[in-house]
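Database export, one record per block. Field names are fixed; values are copied verbatim from the stored entry.
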Amino acid sequence: MLLAIEIGNTNLKFGLYEVAGVAAGTLVHTWRSMTKREQTGDELAALVDSMLRLNGVSRSAVDRVVVANVVPPLYRAITGMARRYIGCRPEFLSAARQSLMPVRTTHPAELGADLIAGAIGGVAKYGSPLIVVGFGTATTFAAIGSEGEYLGTAIAPGIAISVDALVRHAAKLMSVPLVRPPRSIGADTSGALQSGILLGAVGQTEYLVAKMAAEMGGRPTVVATGGLAELVAPHTRSIDAVDERLVLDGLYRWATSESQTATADPA
């Protein structure tokens, strides 16, 4: 079995895939935990082992670990976990070194592994042209052209960190439930915040998707992913689908493709 790991700034996401037989490509189990930059390989191993046992899977059943990592301090921990407890070398996806999707940006090495993984998974599942909107620590808009090439990205502060910063620096403001308000003109502080935060995110999404689509030409499919995708997607027609497992599926696709080139651990 193959263990795909997405290491984001806020969460670690794990996906366990079958790689053989008629069930090849099936996502058997998935789970997540909070990202802790100080985490050790032993702690990660304990987390993985407990989740495998909870789902009735033996650790010995896992023979590959593939990773999309945007948190450099965790390279060494994930490498130690894979080598010591799984018995394999982890394979780290790199936009600059993979050969599955052409990258047309000026500096491919700067492109996050999560972005290229989501793009690979998105094209495999939804075709191209495509825009993948990631609602995570940052809100990202990834443009993939009609030939399946990665064109570029727009990156904005994520919804959660924007709210945290606002509440932290404005003494009279407080955290509120992130639900759609009845009106855009808030009659109280709670409604005003909900309007600005949620409807603002909707407006940002619609504007950037429209601008990208115009530059790309035609009507690309728009897929949302990330922990906050379900918060925004129901309130806009700009998003065609929500797919929480897009990055994990992209990792599986890359790892099992004949054209993939796994990178040695950089730690």
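Remark 1: Strands lie at 2-7, 11-17, 27-34, 64-69, 91-92, 130-135, 138-144, 150-157, 221-225, 241-242.
Remark 2: The longest strand covers residues 27-34.
End of record.
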